[in-house]
Design a protein that fits this description.
Layout (H helix, E strand, L loop, with lengths): L1 H6 L3 H21 L18 H11 L2 H58 L5 H10 L15 H16 L5 H12 L12 H7 L13 H4 L2 H11 L5 H7 L1 H18 L5 H5 L3 H5 L3 H29 L4 H29 L5 H24 L3 H7 L14
Length: 399
């Protein structure tokens, strides 16, 4: 299976990777209207929506796990096609350069927007008040520097290097273990449990590992999905097994998610983020049950997404390919745009769902238009996705 994967494009993985990244726009757009995140999100609205709360935490369970699994698959694919040196060169271009370019640009844009917000929004929430006080030097900001929305690129660089090192140790027991994991669905009864320690430490809901200092829980969670994707490359037939039991997985998710959502802590997220190591690791039966459900839901939903993606998106399509190419750029620039529209809509009297769709829709339109006009056929587009030629875009009406 891996030989054919090297020679052909895996359309469904391309497409669902793009969908996972684009879902981030809706995810962050919803934060302004979700009660649990309003204590820490820097552009919050007086309006709240329980339905949006249910939506964002459901997507949060698998969105980035799915992305890292697919990233692991394509990392192995690239090593097979280009060798280790070619792979590392590609990662430096596709991940390293965008990180060092867009991380400071995002930070500058967001700081400027937050300064504007403190003068525009009449009733500041706790996080906004901290920003306002910091601007006036009443309470200087002593937080460690963060990678911000670029955290996934930062982690992916480390995961790629570690994977290249590990693949040099081709021990026989690894092949046997891989055969056991992908040989049947029985391991699915146990494997999600290895995610529990990382999830227990990270807390609920899972925050982004944005520190420059490696946050080891992310290696025990996202890193394991990356590793699974790396070895899934050798066993793509595994999805046939999953597909035959898809109804059971879906039923399990439908039963488990309401329980997980109910067990989500009632405390605000800023309280959860400020806990010490001892507090985070203190035994709590309710928390243990919740993170156990989170582990199984993450794995099951990721596999369901893979099966459905292969079933419905495994075909060459010019428009889908275009969206896939644009998704990286959209994710890199979406957060300042989301912040901007959330800020200006804060003082506008509109239903919460209208605000949500204006924010997410306008962000996507601007991001896609700028991708087409100033990115796709430029050196910037070459850095992100490789060289593109106008005559190769019949779906976009170009000759």
């Amino acid at each position: 299976m891996q030989e054919s994967a090297v020679k052909t494009r895996i359309h469904y993985l391309d497409h669902i990777r793009a969908l996972a990244m684009l879902l981030g726009v809706f995810f962050h757009a919803a934060f302004s209207y979700a009660e649990y995140t309003q204590s820490v999100w820097l552009t919050t609205d007086i309006e709240k929506s329980f339905a949006l709360e249910v939506f964002i935490w459901f997507g949060h369970l698998f969105r980035m796990a799915l992305f890292f699994l697919i990233a692991g698959f394509f990392a192995n694919l690239m090593v097979q096609k280009r060798g280790v040196f070619g792979f590392l060169k590609n990662r430096a271009l596709r991940l390293g350069l965008p990180f060092f370019i867009f991380m400071p640009l995002n930070a500058i844009a967001i700081i400027a927007l937050l300064v504007y917000a403190t003068g525009y929004i009449q009733d500041l929430n706790g996080a906004q008040q901290i920003v306002a006080d910091s601007i006036r030097n009443e309470t200087p900001n002593t937080d460690a520097p963060r990678t911000g929305v670029m955290w996934f690129v930062y982690n992916l660089m480390f995961f790629s290097i570690i994977a290249v090192i590990l693949q040099k140790f081709n021990f026989a027991f690894i092949a046997r273990l891989r055969g056991w994991v992908f040989g049947s669905l029985t391991p699915l009864l146990l494997l999600p449990l290895i995610l529990v320690p990382a999830l227990y430490y990270a807390g609920l809901p899972l925050a982004s590992p944005e520190l420059f200092t490696p946050e080891m829980w992310s290696y025990g969670y996202y890193g394991l999905f990356f590793l699974f994707g790396w070895h899934f490359f050798y066993h793509t037939e595994y999805l046939e097994l999953v597909s035959r039991h898809l109804n059971k997985l879906v039923a399990s998710v439908l039963l488990a998610y309401p329980v997980f959502f109910y067990l989500m802590p009632q405390a605000t997220m800023d309280t959860a983020l400020s806990l010490s190591f001892d507090d985070k690791m203190a035994f709590d039966a309710g928390k243990l049950l919740a993170v156990g459900l989170e582990a199984y839901l993450s794995v099951f939903l990721t596999l369901i997404a893979l099966v459905l993606g292969r079933r419905f998106f495994d075909a060459q399509n010019q428009i889908a390919r275009y969206i896939s190419d644009a998704s990286y750029w959209v994710y890199l620039v979406h957060l300042p745009l989301v912040f901007y529209f959330q800020i200006i809509l804060t003082e506008v009297d509109l239903p919460v769902w209208i605000k949500f769709f204006i924010t997410s829709g306008a962000t996507l339109v601007i991001a896609f238009v700028t991708y087409h006009l100033v990115v796709r056929y430029t050196p910037l587009g070459t850095m992100l996705n490789g060289k593109k030629y106008r005559h190769a875009d019949p779906a976009m009406g170009e000759k």
